[in-house]
Specification:
Layout (H helix, E strand, L loop, with lengths): L1 E6 L7 H11 L3 E6 L3 H4 L2 H8 L22 H8 L2 E7 L1 H9 L5 H8 L4 E5 L3 H5 L1 H12 L3 E2 L3 E4 L5 E5 L3 H16 L5 E6 L4 E2 L5 E2 L6 H12 L3 E6 L11 E4 L3 H11 L5 E4 L6 E2 L20 E2 L3 H8 L4 E8 L3 H11 L4 E6 H4 L4 E8 L4 E8 H22 L1
Parallel strand pairs: 1-2, 1-3, 3-4, 4-5, 8-11, 8-13, 11-12, 13-16, 16-17
Antiparallel strand pairs: 6-7, 9-10, 14-15, 17-18, 18-19
The structure holds ligand PMT.
Length: 401
């Protein structure tokens, strides 16, 4: 694989040389891009000697010690030719620029032009690491699906002791290999995802709905796309931008969601039902707006069709993932739903934490009986973990046949 290694300006820049060596040892060819500040700490020649390639040190030919730039669009070429971008050390400044789309040198410009997986290994002073600005930038970057290899705790060059030391290069190389393995492991798959709430009308202006924002389902769609799948995203009404490349089918009601899902099911190899489908609806919706009055308004609601249960009956060889939003007995309820709806995996989460939030804490209950608790992380990171376990599950189900 062609790996682009961005080196930021920090004391730990010298450790990036060891990372370059490890990446080469793992069979990758490495193109090093150094920021101006990085060159204050390590000479480009070190990386050139290790990688056997000229090191890129600036956006313009005059800024490049080794005259490496063949054209003014070199950053686009490197972005297109690289399978992965790893940045080590990722300084607070680089994280801020990536998070906000500031492109003022080769590395930050290339980052914007790059569409593949990104691994970030931050290193900085503990206070800079804990600063709200840095942590918010990291949340943004994690939300984009980038892997953040957390810094380690220990004595720092500034004399402080705390978090901020660049992770061991072996850990960073491992994260690179995980990210590379994920880039293609859903190739050939068609993932059908449902997301968001449904809205069940009561009259032309009123409806019953719930607090689902669609973030979990959209994160699943984004993860599947990044791993090479074709994605059909059936979405209730939400205020999110769909991930580029997903085929979006907008629906409002549970009945519309059911129709769309059943229509597209034949194409799907994996179905993930992250939507919060309304459980009840009004069968006869009046055509006129109900006038406000002092009188009580009683409604008789019918249950909506249970789409997941229906899919469980006809799923065939497809992998079927359901969600369970619970207020109590998380695992027991998830197990019950997994069996009742014939799912392969049930993702259980807590109502009070899951709805509308950017991150979540989930428990995976598998058809094999295994229960996996995943600690709090961004929904995008959890989406990747869901696919990691789902693919492992498929292997063990095949092996058991
Ligand atoms: O959208 P976010 O704000 O990011 O929040 C994410 C989430 C909380 C909505 C998501 O993580 C989640 O838990 N989704 C499922 C919510 C839910 O409806 O849970 P449930 O336990 O009521 O339903 C169980 C499963 O049956 C779900 O997969 C649901 O999609 C499915 N179902 C439910 C009712 C119905 N009529 N048809 C269904 O298919």
């Amino acid at each position: 694989m062609n790996v682009a290694l961005g080196v930021g300006g920090g004391i730990a820049a010298y450790k990036a040389a060891e990372l370059a060596r490890l990446l080469m040892e793992h069979g990758h060819s490495v193109q090093v891009v150094m920021t101006r500040a990085a060159q204050e700490f390590v000479r480009p020649l070190t990386f050139a000697a290790l990688t056997g390639r000229k090191v890129i040190t600036g956006l313009f030919p005059g800024e490049n010690a080794a005259d490496t730039l063949d054209s003014a669009t070199e950053h686009i070429r490197v972005a297109q030719e690289s399978a992965l971008l790893v940045v080590a050390p990722a300084t607070a400044d680089l994280l801020a620029k990536f998070a906000h789309g500031i492109a003022d040198d080769f590395l930050t410009t290339m980052y914007l032009a790059f569409t593949g997986p990104v691994v970030l290994a931050p290193a900085m002073n503990s206070n800079m690491w804990r600063h709200e600005a840095t942590q918010r930038n990291l949340d943004t970057l994690r939300g984009r699906g980038h892997i953040v290899v957390e810094p380690e705790e220990g004595p720092l060059a500034c004399g402080m002791v705390g978090p901020g030391r660049l992770a061991d290069p072996a850990r960073i190389a491992e994260a690179v290999n995980t990210a590379i393995a994920r880039t293609r492991d859903l190739e050939g798959e068609c993932v059908l995802v449902t997301a968001g709430p449904t809205q069940e009308p009561l009259d032309p202006v009123r409806f019953i709905s719930n607090r689902s924002s669609g973030k979990m389902g959209y994160a699943i769609a984004a993860a599947a796309l990044a791993r090479g799948a074709r994605v059909i995203l059936v979405s209730g009404p939400v205020h999110l931008t769909p991930p580029a490349g997903a085929e979006l089918i907008r629906v409002e009601t549970a009945a519309e969601m059911r129709r769309a899902v059943l229509e597209r099911l034949p194409e799907a190899t994996i179905v993930v039902k992250a939507a919060a489908v309304a459980d009840y609806y009004l069968a006869q919706v009046p055509s006129q707006k109900r006038k406000k009055s002092a009188a009580r308004w009683s409604l008789e609601l019918d249950p909506t069709p249970d789409i997941l249960a229906e899919l469980g009956q006809i799923k065939g060889d497809r992998l079927l993932v359901g969600f369970a939003a619970e207020t109590e007995n998380l695992v027991a309820e998830a197990r019950r739903k997994l069996q009742a709806k014939n799912c392969d995996m049930l993702v259980a989460n807590r109502v009070e934490e899951a709805f509308g939030a950017d991150d979540n804490e989930i428990t995976l209950v598998l058809r094999t009986g295994e229960v996996i608790e995943l600690p709090r992380a961004s929904k995008r990171e959890l989406a990747d973990k869901i696919f990691d376990y789902l693919l492992q599950l498929r292997l063990s189900l095949h092996a058991a046949r």
